[in-house]
Design goal:
Its EC number is 2.1.1.37. By secondary structure, this protein is α/β, with parallel strands linked by helices. The chain folds into 3 domains: 80 residues, 434 Repressor (Amino-terminal Domain); 197 residues, Vaccinia Virus protein VP39 (Rossmann fold, 3-Layer(aba) Sandwich), CATH 3.40.50; 103 residues, DNA Methylase, Chain A, domain 2 (Alpha-Beta Complex). It contains 14 helices and 8 strands. The chain has a 6-stranded mixed β-sheet with strand order 2-1-3-4-6-5, sandwiched between helices. Strand 1, helix 6 and strand 2 form a beta-alpha-beta unit. Helix 6 packs across helix 14.
Amino acid sequence: MSSRGHKVLISAHKKENTYMEILPQITENSPAVLIKNKRIRLQMTQKELADAVGMSKFGDRTIRRWENGESQPSSIELKHILSFPEKVPFPNNENAPYKIIDLFAGIGGIRLGFYQTGKTNVVFSSEIDKFAVKTYKANFGETPHGDITKISEKDIPNHDILVGGFPCQAFSQAGKKLGFDDTRGTLFFEITRIIKEKKPKAFLLENVKNLKSHDRGRTYKTIEKTLKDLNYDVHSIILKAKDFGVPQNRERIYIVGFNKDKVDNYQDFSFPIPPFIEVSVGNILEQNVDSKYTISNALWQGHQRRKREHKIKGNGFGYTLFNEKSPYTNTLSARYYKDGSEILIEQKGKNPRKLTPREVARLQGFPESYIIPVSDTQSYKQFGNSVAVPVINAIANKIIDVLDTCTKKEID
């Protein structure tokens, strides 16, 4: 070998050694291995882990570099990832006295309100959205069954309470009489066929407040008559989330029913009296929010232009600004991920910002321990579609009060 060739080999060898020295050594206890093993235990992709721990837009790339040993997280970043909970925060209580089924479960907001009573055991759940299923499993440790329309009512376990939030759909105009047959082809029919077959002691259904006026009142009348025809004492009320300690002007209708054959004291039921707890938007805001939630100049200019146009037309549509002193926000919707215009937070010297996923969780009254294992876009959709947990919990307690004092015993 020539002297020149020998020098080239030595040079290449030196470069390789230098490169190996630059890269952190991947050992059993190195951050690369610890992070990867944590992610595998959580059954998450790199993007899902980045989203779950609240990293910035391209957090998955950072996770990938860490796992490949190309860079290292700070001690704070590593601790944050390794402390992410592996045990579900809201495990099912199989010894609880009342069995529940959770239909159109979403991310389990209604289930959570009942869980907080300490008296319910969920024996069946159903949800069709794969991202909602992921969030549900992360928090409750169970994967809901899929499309309820494909599941026979005979295969549903026996239960004491049926709960669900169902979409508002118009019913068939074919029959002149309002009743069960008019509901076919709607998701409400899925609820009624299960109630008809399993005859639970009670149910709680949640819907948008406009259900009462939908289709000139015919939709609600059909629902009420159908449930009464199944021998249930039916109650309904519109309640505001802001009256139950969450700073959101969210109005929803709640429909409660008791089986007259199984609950002899059904007339004792009354909806909860709102506690009118004073809160403000400041109660749900995070400190040191990532700049990715600040809206761009183009989006902010677009919001302002559209608001001016709406004002000229004489309507009040457009973005709405809130600050920490605001008593409450507008209603959070599943469309919040698009531009956040319904709830924007003022910032000094900056464009306003959107709420973070944790803030929208708080806006619906979800506990801090509730895990958000999905992207910002999905979390906005999920919490926007969910329920105000404190309202559900207040109603759940009133339902269980009736069942606790029921003297009628079922014959197996």
